[in-house]
# Entry
Amino acid sequence: MKRIALLGATGSIGRQAIEVIDANPELELVAATSGSQQIEGLARLTQVGGDPTALLERAAPDIVLNAVVGFAGLVPTMWALERGVTLALANKESLVAAGELALAARRRGGGALLPVDSEHSALYQCALLGEPESMVLTASGGPFRGRSAVELEAVTPAQALVHPTWSMGPKITIDSATLANKGLELIEAHFLFGLAYERIEVVIHPSSIVHGLVRFADGAAIAHLGNPDMRVPISYALNFPERAATPVPPLTLRTLEFFEPDLETFTLLALAREAGERGGTYPCAFNAANEEAVGAFLAGRIGFLDIAGTVAEVLARVDGAAARDLDELVEADRQARELVVVAGA
Ligand SMILES: NC(=O)c1ccc[n+]([C@@H]2O[C@H](COP(=O)([O-])OP(=O)(O)OC[C@H]3O[C@@H](n4cnc5c(N)ncnc54)[C@H](OP(=O)(O)O)[C@@H]3O)[C@@H](O)[C@H]2O)c1
# Structure
């Protein structure tokens, strides 16, 4: 029996996680949190908003499934890594922002870090077969694949919230439309697999069937395929190292297409790579500025292309110095957000 604490239980990942847990008698939901929605009765211990540390201490889970959206996921990520409690991580933002600090906490805690992001779950499974030489992260390309910057100027939140292959929460759906999501995933992969950025390639693959590919020194390349359904990587992380049945239909092979990403139109992917390569708190600033800009876009305060413009402006202004501890990291996040206000978003 595995005891699970689910942070972000009311979200897209959270609800699918509950489905996976309910379908498996080996998994027990012992604690659940949300940001603001009521969740009383969902688990023995529940909490709405606030710091989840005391709840996690009381719940003493075997697995923390972090499905919070945004930088707010930092606390449960660090709690689990520091204590060596298995962390099933959907909240990519915390790993992107905390980077080295998160990895240091994981080394101290000694627990497992299992990615829930479908691409990283795929890469993780491929990487179990050998030492990766390089990796390919696939991206659907979002709803605006093939459009030029001029064609994107008047895009509305409603148009950007329609994703061609995945049904997800609003923030990640906008991130998929701008390709910021793939930028966050690039940085996430760098930290998860310890690979230099030049060894991680991004390829557009509209049908989202191939989730990731790892190349090995002997010339072999192993890819992970599956229908796009988050219950698969959620189930993998919660049942690891076993596999449990999910109600996802078996994959039928068809023609698979791959394209180069258009970095001139979708500049957030290039900006994320640059922020990752510069290191320090640049990834934290990228994430903070993007989070604020996406919020401003969804609220109708800025246009679609202004998201990338805002992030570029913030990255040009921060000093990016490495954070020595969590307080410095939280301060770097705050400063980047403040610059977004200065930038007029
Ligand atoms: N959705 C996907 O298919 C998918 C795929 C891969 C990775 N991910 C990643 O998984 C994470 C969750 O995504 P999602 O699509 O499930 O998001 P979502 O549908 O927006 O759900 C977010 C969850 O986080 C909670 N939350 C929001 N702000 C919070 C705060 N300040 N403190 C505590 N909890 C807070 C929300 O609670 P309320 O409902 O009460 O606001 C909700 O339960 C993101 O990092 C995303 O990038 C998602």
